[in-house]
């Protein structure tokens, strides 16, 4: 996947339901096959920073919002409302290291299975070539 950012900054708010200070995605790179790609520059004013590190709940929220950005992008492309999503479960979660302030997270969301309003994803979060975290997440979409 190309590292060309197609949506960044405040425009991300069109893809996800979260609003500051809880926005944990600041770049959307796009979708290729069954994968989507997002990013986050870890800023010192992030609410999940402790001792200059991005804490575990922030990483989990970043993964969930990365999945939401994929859905939001598809919905915007099809001119349909962006649904709310909820984390149903997180499993096989491994956090290898906590990113430092100033580091750029690059996240891949891979769709494992979609059934009705339930989507199972796998996620990998990296800084450069270093694996930060990986997990599987079940997400429920609230259809209107």
From TrEMBL:
Record-linked InterPro entries: ApeP-like_dehydratase (IPR016776), HotDog_dom_sf (IPR029069)
Domain of life (superkingdom): Bacteria
Name of the protein in question: Hydroxymyristoyl-ACP dehydratase
Organism, as annotated: Dysgonomonas gadei ATCC BAA-286
């Amino acid at each position: 996947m190309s590292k060309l950012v197609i949506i960044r900054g405040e425009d991300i708010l069109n893809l996800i339901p979260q609003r500051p200070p809880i926005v944990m995605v600041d770049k959307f790179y796009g979708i290729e096959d069954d994968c989507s790609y997002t990013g986050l520059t870890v800023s010192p004013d992030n609410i999940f920073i402790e001792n200059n590190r991005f804490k575990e709940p922030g990483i989990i929220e970043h993964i969930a919002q990365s999945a939401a950005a994929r859905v939001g992008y598809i919905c915007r492309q099809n001119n349909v409302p962006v649904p709310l999503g909820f984390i149903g479960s997180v499993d096989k979660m491994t956090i290898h290291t906590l990113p430092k302030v100033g580091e750029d997270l690059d996240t891949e969301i891979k769709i494992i299975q979609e059934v009705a309003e339930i989507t199972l994803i796998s996620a990998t979060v990296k800084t450069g070539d270093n694996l930060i975290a990986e997990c599987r997440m079940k997400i429920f979409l609230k259809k209107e």
